[in-house]
Automatic annotation (TrEMBL):
<keyword id="KW-1015">Disulfide bond</keyword>
<feature type="disulfide bond">
    <location>
        <begin position="49"/>
        <end position="63"/>
    </location>
</feature>
<dbReference type="GO" id="GO:0006032">
    <property type="term" value="P:chitin catabolic process"/>
</dbReference>
<dbReference type="GO" id="GO:0051707">
    <property type="term" value="P:response to other organism"/>
</dbReference>
<dbReference type="GO" id="GO:0006952">
    <property type="term" value="P:defense response"/>
</dbReference>
<dbReference type="GO" id="GO:0016998">
    <property type="term" value="P:cell wall macromolecule catabolic process"/>
</dbReference>
<keyword id="KW-0147">Chitin-binding</keyword>
<dbReference type="Pfam" id="PF00182">
    <property type="entry name" value="Glyco_hydro_19"/>
</dbReference>
<dbReference type="InterPro" id="IPR001002">
    <property type="entry name" value="Chitin-bd_1"/>
</dbReference>
<dbReference type="GO" id="GO:0008061">
    <property type="term" value="F:chitin binding"/>
</dbReference>
<dbReference type="InterPro" id="IPR036861">
    <property type="entry name" value="Endochitinase-like_sf"/>
</dbReference>
<keyword id="KW-0611">Plant defense</keyword>
<dbReference type="InterPro" id="IPR000726">
    <property type="entry name" value="Glyco_hydro_19_cat"/>
</dbReference>
<dbReference type="GO" id="GO:0004568">
    <property type="term" value="F:chitinase activity"/>
</dbReference>
<dbReference type="InterPro" id="IPR023346">
    <property type="entry name" value="Lysozyme-like_dom_sf"/>
</dbReference>
<protein>
    <recommendedName>
        <fullName>Chitin-binding type-1 domain-containing protein</fullName>
    </recommendedName>
</protein>
<feature type="signal peptide">
    <location>
        <begin position="1"/>
        <end position="21"/>
    </location>
</feature>
C-alpha cells in the first residue's frame, strides 16, 4: 500500500510540474523512480497477481488487463504459442490461472491436449472440480507419472476384476487422474480404442490420452453429476475414498480442498456453496 501511495504522490508532482509548462531534470528523475517502484512491487504468494493498482490476489481483477506481476493473463497470452480458444467454459486464461506453476510452453501443450480430447464441461462448477483434481493428482501438471514410480509398480499389479497385468508391465498412476490398476487401464483402453493394458505408458507419454483417461474415469464413475452441482466432497470420495472420514489420507484431502478453493476463483465462482470436505 505504501508503494501505491508513493506512486500517486510522485505522479501528482510530475503532472503539476508539466502543467506549469516546464520539464526539468527533477521531473525526469521522479518519473523514472515511479517505474522503479512499480518494478520492485511484488506479491508474497507465487499464485497471486499484482493488479494495475498494486494490490495482490487472483482472478480477472488482479490477473487481467493491467496486471503488473505474477501469473498475469492480460494481453500477454500466458499460455503462449497456439493454446488459445476455449474448451467450453475453460478458456486459456482460466487454464493459465489454474496451472500457474508451469511454464507457458508446457501449459500450451497441456491445453491443446485438453482441446483435442473432445471433452467439454457442462458448467463452471464441473470445470473447477475436474481441474482441481487434475492439479492435485499431477502436482499442477508437473508430472504425468506417480512420483513413486516405477518402484511402486508391483503394488498395483492386482485389482478387483478378472483382468491380469501384462507380463513386465506396471500400472502405477499415470495421466491427468493418475490412472492405476490393470482393470482401469483395460477398461479405459476399451473405451478409447487403445490397448492400454499392453501399453500403459501411453497414458503418460501421449498427452491426449493422458486427458482422455481422466475424462473416462470422471464419466465412468459418475463424477459428472456431483461436479456440476459443485459437490467436491462427493467426487473426492469417488476418486480417493481413503481421504474421507478422517482416514489415513485426510491431510492429503485438505491440500486437495485448498486447491479447489483456489481454482474456483479462476472461474469467478467464489467460495464453495457445499462443504468440500468429505
Amino acid at each position: 500500500m505504501f508503494s501505491v501511495t508513493v506512486i500517486f504522490y510522485f505522479y501528482f508532482v510530475c503532472k503539476f510540474g508539466n502543467v506549469q509548462g516546464y520539464r526539468n531534470e527533477a521531473n525526469v528523475r521522479l518519473e523514472n523512480l515511479i517505474h522503479r517502484v512499480l518494478s520492485r512491487s511484488s506479491c508474497s504468494s507465487p499464485s497471486d497477481c499484482q493488479s494495475k493498482w498494486g494490490y495482490c490476489g487472483t482472478g480477472s481483477d488482479y490477473c487481467g488487463d493491467g496486471c503488473q506481476g505474477g501469473p498475469c493473463w492480460g494481453n500477454n497470452n500466458p499460455s503462449g504459442g497456439r493454446g488459445g480458444g476455449s474448451v467450453g467454459v475453460i478458456d486459456s486464461n482460466a487454464f493459465a490461472c489454474v496451472f500457474n506453476s508451469i511454464d507457458s510452453s508446457a501449459r500450451t501443450k497441456q491445453f491443446d491436449a485438453l482441446t483435442a480430447s473432445g471433452w467439454t464441461p457442462n458448467n463452471k462448477d464441473e470445470a473447477a472440480v475436474f481441474l482441481a483434481h487434475v492439479y492435485h493428482e499431477t502436482d499442477g501438471l508437473k508430472t504425468m507419472r506417480e512420483y513413486c514410480s516405477p518402484g511402486c509398480g508391483p503394488q498395483y499389479s492386482s485389482s478387483w476384476c478378472s483382468i491380469n497385468a501384462a507380463p513386465g508391465k506396471y500400472y502405477y498412476g499415470r495421466g491427468w487422474f493418475q490412472l492405476s490398476y490393470p482393470c482401469n487401464y483395460y477398461n479405459a483402453g476399451q473405451s478409447l480404442g487403445v490397448n492400454l493394458l499392453s501399453n500403459p505408458d501411453l497414458v503418460a507419454t501421449n498427452l491426449k490420452i493422458a486427458v482422455q483417461t481422466a475424462v473416462w474415469f470422471f464419466k465412468a464413475n459418475n463424477m459428472e453429476g456431483p461436479a456440476r452441482r459443485g459437490n467436491f466432497a462427493a467426487t473426492t470420495r469417488i476418486l480417493n475414498p481413503i481421504e474421507c472420514n478422517g482416514g489415513s489420507g485426510y491431510q492429503n484431502q485438505l491440500t486437495r480442498v485448498a486447491t479447489y478453493r483456489r481454482v474456483r476463483q479462476c472461474f469467478n465462482l467464489g467460495s464453495p456453496t457445499i462443504n468440500p470436505i468429505c
